[in-house]
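If you are new to this repository, start here. Below is one unmodified record pulled from the training split, so you can see the exact layout before writing a loader.
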Amino acid sequence: MFTGKSMSRALAKKQKTMTVEEYLMFEEKSRRKHEFMDGEIFQMAGVKRSHSTISQNVSRSVGNQLEDKPCEVHGSDIKVLIREGHYVYPDVSVVCDEIDFDTNGTTLLNPLVIFEVLSKSTESRDRGDKAEDYFKLESLRDYVMIAQNRVRVEHYSRIGGGKWTFEVLESLDDKLILDSIDCKIPLKNIYSKVELKPLKLIKKKK
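And here is the target side for that same chain:
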């Protein structure tokens, strides 16, 4: 079994797979966060200013609306167990009513809403492995992916029977409506103080 520095060296040199127990031990001592899926770990890269600002905007907007309700809003320092063998660090997670954490209080087991701010290094997983398992997570009602360089919010909402609805919001005048937690978030609040890239105009050929 890996321990301490030996685990860090093995991870860096050989990229050896880990058991869940080894991962949790390693993560507890690590200065950096790592997601984990079926023996493989993924180091979480540092985020850009826009990523951080959007995450904070979402946390603040949702937190203010849930202040008097039996809910908690958590940032990216809290792990979420999507399924056995798959641990992730969402940018924002929301849980209400019967709030269920592991015995250490570091891993949320029953999120109601998950927000992921997309970046080049994480987008493929946010749309792929993570999304696939998020959609199977019984407690989850809303999965929201937010672009950080342009106005685009993708919202998946569970309607029951394993089915989900999907909508795309691309105007600052739009509102993200989360019926599961009775929240409405204007996109202008999500993108407040974020420097967005201007849209590129496509020139017509003569």
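Two things worth knowing about this chain: The chain has six helices and 13 strands. The mean pLDDT is 89.
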